[in-house]
Amino acid sequence: QVHLVESGGGSVQAGGSLRLACSVSEWTDSTSCMAWFRQSPGKEREGVAAIRYDGNTIFADSVNGRFSISKDYRKNTLDLQMNNLKPEDTALYYCAGGCLAWDLAPDVWRVWGQGTQVTVSS
Q1: Which residue from 59, 53, 111, 99 is spatially nearest to 81, judged by alpha carbons?
Q2: Of the residues 67, 99, 107, 111, which has the fewest C-beta atoms closer than 10 A?
Q3: Beta-carbon count within 10 A of 2 CB
């Protein structure tokens, strides 16, 4: 089974940028669709962005226009570029793969990383 490890989290002021990376152990059927999710204390896990084998992407309304998602086959990573960060973006960010449907609902994704913390201060 593919193994996912997130990195790149940290603390940043509002308006700043961060780039998260998800290290992918191998490119398999489980990586034909990949996504980023986030979860804040007391809130449900929510989908942020996803990318498919054909390059199609979907974004949550809350991050559309500020975040971008991409695969780097040379580095074997799934990346999330986050610009113009807001305090409400503060969360534990997870990488996921192996979607059962092309959707940002967490329950259709089978493979998960452990998460990396992003904190945005005002």
Answers
A1: 59
A2: 107
A3: 16
